Amino acid sequence: MNDASLQLRFLAACAIAREAGQLVRPRFEQRDEVLKLAFMGPQDYPTGNRVIGCTPALHDALVSAMAVRGAFA
Question: Are 45 and 54 spatial neighbours (Cβ–Cβ below 8 Å)?
């Protein structure tokens, strides 16, 4: 791989990153309207049962991560 091909790859990666940023920026700017979290109490941290928008997959991932870290010991 020569310098020219590396430069082309770099320019392509920069263009992809810019486009990705442009696509996600409107959602980022609306995060306060879109992302509403409601915690009813400390029991919600390990279970996520009352976190609005918490999918079952996210819930399972959170519980697994906390179990690995010894949160339930």
Answer: no
Give this prediction's pTM.
Answer: 0.43
Domain tally, the chain: 2
**DSSP-assigned states of every residue in 32-46:** HHH------STTHHH
Q: What is the pLDDT of residue 48?
A: 46
44 and 19 fall within a common domain: no
- Distances from the Cα of 5 to the Cα of 11, 16, 58, 65, angstroms: 10, 17, 40, 41
Q: What is the extent of the structural domain holding 65?
A: 36-73
Kindly report the number of other CB atoms within 10 A of residue 44's CB atom. 15
